[in-house]
Amino acid sequence: MTTTQPTPDQRSATRERPSARRTPTYAVGTRRHLDADEIAATGLRDRWYPILPSRMLEPGAMVPVRRLEVDWVLFRDAQGRVRMLEDRCPHRSAPLSVGQHLGDRIACAYHGVQVDGEGTVVSVPGMPGCALEGRRATISLEVVEAADTIFAFLPLTAESVPTPFVLPDRLSDPEVSWFGNFAEWAGPWRFYMDNVLDPMHGAFLHRNSHSMFGGDTSARFRIRETDRGFFFEKTDQRGVNFDWVEFVRGSMDYVDLEIPYGPGAGPGGVFGIVGMSTPIDRSTSAIFHWRTRRVSGWERETWRFLYRTTLEAKHWEVLEQDRLVLEALAGDADREEHLYQHDLGVSRIRRIYRADAVAQAEQLAAANA
What we know:
Structural class: alpha+beta
Protein name: 3-phenylpropionate dioxygenase
Region (Disordered): 1-24
CATH architecture of the largest domain: Alpha-Beta Complex
Domain Rieske: 48-152
InterPro entries: Cholesterol_7-desaturase, Rieske_2Fe-2S, Rieske_2Fe-2S_sf, VanA_C_cat
Mean pLDDT: 90
Keywords: 2Fe-2S, Dioxygenase, Iron, Iron-sulfur, Metal-binding, Oxidoreductase
Shape: globular
Largest sheet: 7 strands, antiparallel
Number of helices: 6
CATH superfamily of the largest domain: Naphthalene 1,2-dioxygenase Alpha Subunit, Chain A, domain 1
């Protein structure tokens, strides 16, 4: 049997044919392969995350933010809709955030390239009609504005499809009044979740606070599974201190908990908290809380007045206690521990997030196989 070897020209043509080349798949915005450890450190993808309070993005302004170790720029278009682009001009990667806001687009300061809210290049003033015009060359994220907060879906790959956006129960209930709270902490995002899934720290770290001074300093805990996550709760005390927390996996991951209020806190039910943590990078976190209370009618206005004038400062004091401890922890503090029964919630959330990180790393690897 006779075989014919391809000529050098044929071999070259085969190598250069576009269908013979593959574009590597990276986590969106990273431009590098991520393994499970890096995903765990910088944040899980394919989730909705709170990005910034709405009040921090004024009309006509551009706000650069770093989330999941990627630089982004936020702006409102001419209709007031929030847009979120990777903070890189597709021409020479100059930051779009130092350019000019043109209503429905941004003009890069470096060479004037204009990119709209969908990430499409609409004008290249230096070379009109070039191939870059009309190309969707900048990453644009799906954004929703709700609960006085800007949320975005952070995809794993360019093929990821955003899940339906659904707010936590307390924030979508018209009978619940809430106040948003935002802070940046110098600590890994996972430390926040560990902290909230450890209710026992309330009886020690927050012992002298206005709302967590009561109850025993010893307890037994259990995990109670739900169809959307799990409760971690004390078995022998309820409604006295920080006695339970629910971890919820919806369109976004969040924690839900309640702290009992004394008579001095005014009318209404217990004090509820919805909490989320968004990675800024592997060593900094954006922390979001919504402080809630079920109130209606005149009680609603009384509660809101009382919160602003008296209670808000007290809640900030409690939050500062958490921040100071978590920022003082070593970066590998969760690697050198001796856990006990109170830490079942911490162990559970770590297993969940580790499994997610491994699965996402495998998804990236399979896409490049």
